Amino acid sequence: MWYSECKFLWQCHTVLLFVLWEGMNCQEQTEPSPGYKIEAPAGVRVQRGLCVRIPCSFTVGPGFNLTRDAIGIWYKGYNGGKVAASTDSSRFPDTTNGRFIFTGKVSAGDCSFSISDAQPGDADRYQFRLEDRDGLYITYVGIKPSVSVTEPDISPTEGLIAGEEVTLTCTAPTNCPGLSPTFTWEGSVNTERTQNHTLRHQDGNFSYWSNITFTPSPRHHNSPLSCTVTYKHGSTSTSITLNVKCESIFHYVIIYTQN
Predict the structure, then answer these.
(1) Where is the signal peptide (predicted)?
(2) Which residue ranges form the domains of the chain, and what is each CATH number?
(3) Segment 29-38, tens digit of pLDDT
(4) pTM of the model
(5) Beta strand ranges found along 204-251 (DSSP E)
């Protein structure tokens, strides 16, 4: 009996030592206790209005087994900051109108979460914390995924020649199921020749894009061209300035003279 109690106390002291060490802000280090590890992308990019899933898995140290009561918490910025997603809605009420969802099963070591209808204010680093029975309270510092919120992309932006037909593409990649955005082009060029496309990838993600085909002229140089992507909950747009070049045409005239 005495041995088992000592073993339990030793485990608790190990976890407490970990938490105190983390509080020293040793950012270059990973989890110092053996067995505590987190795997997640260092950063993800998501276009405004779209959604993204951040895959994540973690392990705990020897002597601990995750229970069904294990709680996962994702903090925005740092431990103790705003709770972005958790598996315990009674302790941590949703503050994102359902946009952040903890999708992983904590008892299975899955700490994945998703973001829908991404907004510029979502851009930040996120930190994972685990809480379970037997005094298991761990904040993982090895990886804190960063989320970047971007705008739609128009390409190419170079190589436009006056008089030569060109096709530009506005892209909106996403893994939002059932999302069908609409594209709208605006500018001084002819915006009638457009074609929208959808591609489903093997991993379940989708790519949406729209092509616009036109023939630029010198008067289109330095004029704006915008692409607006409209979703169920709103829209986002991006704009470029057309850089149209004129190719010089040289006419060679050979004059023969007779002496």
Answers:
(1) 1-26
(2) 2-149 (2.60.40.10), 151-245 (2.60.40.10)
(3) 344 577 899 9
(4) 0.69
(5) 206-214, 224-231, 234-241, 244-245
